[in-house]
Amino acid sequence: MSQQLPPLNALRAFEAVARHLSFTKAAAELHVTRAAISHQIKFLEDYLGFALVERKNRTIVLSKGAEAALPKLRQAFDYLADAVHLMRNETHREHITVCAAPSFASKWLIPRLPRFSRQHPEIDMQINSNVGLVDADLQQDNRAMDTFFRQNQVDVVIGFGAGQYPGDSVIKLFAVSAVPVCSPALLSAQHPHPLNTPADLAFHTLLHDDTNYVGHPSWSKWLKLQGVEGINANRGLHFNHVSLALDAAVDAQGVLLSIKPLAQADIDAGRLCIPFDLPMPLEHAYYVFRPQSAPLNQRACDVFVEWLLEEAHQNPTPGGLNAH
C-alpha cells in the first residue's frame, strides 16, 4: 500500500518557493497570496516534522532535507505533467485517412506533412497511396466513389482529373503544366550535344513516365506544340512510375517530360533543371474531393483541406516556387 502523501497544493507551493527562493515570486507564479504560500509551507513542515526553509538576512535558504528531496519532487511533477499531456492528447486525438496517387503522395504531399504535423499535432493521419484513385471511370461514377469512400473508410482523396465528380464535394487544388527536365550535365558545353533548343532532343534519349492515368502528358503532344519535327516521340526509355523516370533523369540518362510539381523538389535541389522554358498547360488538374455525407471527424477533415489549399497557394512546392 502506497504511503499517504500531503496535499498537492502544499508540494507545489514548496517547489515554487525552492525554485525562486522567494515566497513573493512563488505566490505570483501560482496566482495566490504570499500568506497562502506561507500557510502551505507551514502545513508541509508540520506534516514532515522538520523545517523546510530558513530565513537569513531577508533571504531564504533550504534545509538539508529540503535540498535532498527537491530533485525527486521536481521529477515527480515532470512525470505528472507528462501523464496529463498523454491523457489530454489521447482524449482529443483525431484521425483522418487521405488517399492520393503514389506519384503525388511521394513527390508533393509527403515532403509537406511535417508542417501539418507541427501545426496540428492532435490529428493522426493515414496515407493510402492507391493508383486506382486517379482512374477517371471511378471518379466520375458517383456510386463507385460512394462505395470506395465507405468500404475503405477514406475521408479525403486527392486526384488528378477533369474535376467532374458528381455527388462529391470538389475543390480544385491547382492546375499544372508539363515541362522537360534533365540533369544539368546535359546542358554543359562539354557535352557532345548540349541541350540548347528543342531540336537538340534528337541527340538525346527521351524518358517516359508511363504511369497509367487520364490526362497523362506525352512527348508527342509537347513536340507538336513546340513545332518540333523529325523526332520519334515514342523512342527512348519507358517507366511505369514517375520516381523511376525522375531517377533516370537525375542520372543524366535522358530528358523527361514531367508534371512540374512532381519534379520540383529535384529542381530546387539542383539535381534537375528545365532546359527550355516551354511549359505545356494540361487540361487536367489536381482536385480534392470528399463524400457528401459528413464524417464523424468532420473538423479534422476541414482542417486538413484548408491546410492543403494554403500549401497549394502559399507553398505550391517545397521550395516555394509556383507549380504552374
Automatic annotation (TrEMBL):
UniProt domain HTH lysR-type: residue ranges: 6-63
Keywords of the record: DNA-binding, Transcription, Transcription regulation
Gene3D superfamilies: Periplasmic binding protein-like II (3.40.190.10), Winged helix-like DNA-binding domain superfamily/Winged helix DNA-binding domain (1.10.10.10)
Cross-referenced Pfam families: HTH_1 (PF00126), LysR_substrate (PF03466)
InterPro entries found in the cross-reference section: LysR-type_TF_proteobact-type, LysR_HTH_N, LysR_subst-bd, WH-like_DNA-bd_sf, WH_DNA-bd_sf
SUPFAM superfamilies: Periplasmic binding protein-like II, Winged helix' DNA-binding domain
NCBIfam families with a match to the protein in the record: PRK11139.1 (NF008352)
Family listed: Belongs to the LysR transcriptional regulatory family.
Name this protein carries in UniProt: Transcriptional regulator GcvA
Species assigned in the record: Thiothrix winogradskyi
Highest classification ranks of the organism: Bacteria, Pseudomonadati, Pseudomonadota, Gammaproteobacteria, Thiotrichales
Gene name of this polypeptide: gcvA
